[in-house]
Each structure stands twice: as structure tokens, then as C-alpha cells.
Amino acid sequence: MYTNRPVIQVKKTLFERLFNMVAIVAFFAWMVYLVVDWASIPERIPSHFNALGEPDGWSSRGFIGVILFIGLIQWIGLSILERYPHVYNYLHLTEENAEWQYKNAIMMINVLKNSIILFFIFISWQSIQVATGAADGLGKEFLFIFLVVILGSSAFFLLRSVRKR
């Protein structure tokens, strides 16, 4: 299926390396915080929020680990996927534009994977804030911001890809 596509080794951009580093450092800093402060985290934390960012489901504090595990697995999976841009779906891929299309697609995956893990960190942090009474929820604007970042960045890179025929 992908035999006619060139397999090109694409070097990561400075932006991609920096964004990866920010996400990794944030993730491990959050893990250290959780280990150090585990005893002070309330036993019950919000595990679900409605569209207005209000908590409407509760679980044990161990649920934070589930959130972060899911975030880490998706980050690792998308990091692996970044290495194989020749297996993605493209419109009008040619020998002449393949390298540019691959770079664009890799950048899109990079932005998505790092944004998602940062959102997961924020959600787990905010869950603790709600459980301790320091916050009421994620905030009414959270869903809008999340959708703009995820769908907006996807649309941006897809539009760039279509324009670069």
C-alpha cells in the first residue's frame, strides 16, 4: 500500500525538540509532585467534568494515575507514529513535495501529542484543586480552549498540507 511512497528520514525541528522537552519535563515534574504530596491529596477527586467544566463524577485519588498513564501511553504511541510519516494519509503526495508533507505531518503529530499530555497534566492538577476546595472545576472556557487547540492545530496543518500540493 505504501510501497510507492518515499521513505525519508526527517530531522526534528528545534520547535519539535523544545516542545517535546517542555512536555517531558512537565510530566516528570508533575509525577515528582504527586509522589511527594500523595498523602495530602484528598481520597476522592473528580474523575469527570461536564461541558461547563463542572465536576460530575468522582473517583479515588488513584484515578490521577489512570489519567497520567493514558496521557503517557498516547504520548509514546504518537512519538512512535512520528517516525513513520510515509504511512500517513496524504492528498496529492508527490516525490517533489514528500519531504515537506512529511515535515508538516510530523509537526502536526508533535503539536497534538504534546498539547494532549499538557492538558492531561492540567486536568489532573485541577482535579486535585477541586477536591481540596481551591477551585470549582476546570472552568467554563476549558472545553473551548481544548477544542481550539486540538481541532485548530489539526485544521491548520491539514490546510497547509492541502495548499502545498
UniProtKB/TrEMBL annotation:
Domain of life: Bacteria
Protein name per the record: DUF1648 domain-containing protein
InterPro entries: DUF1648
Organism: Jeotgalibacillus marinus
Keyword Transmembrane: yes
Keyword Transmembrane helix among UniProt keywords: yes
Keyword annotations: Membrane, Transmembrane, Transmembrane helix
Coiled-coil ranges from the UniProt annotation: none
DUF1648 domain ranges (all copies): 28-72
Transmembrane parts of this sequence: 21-41, 61-81, 102-122, 142-159
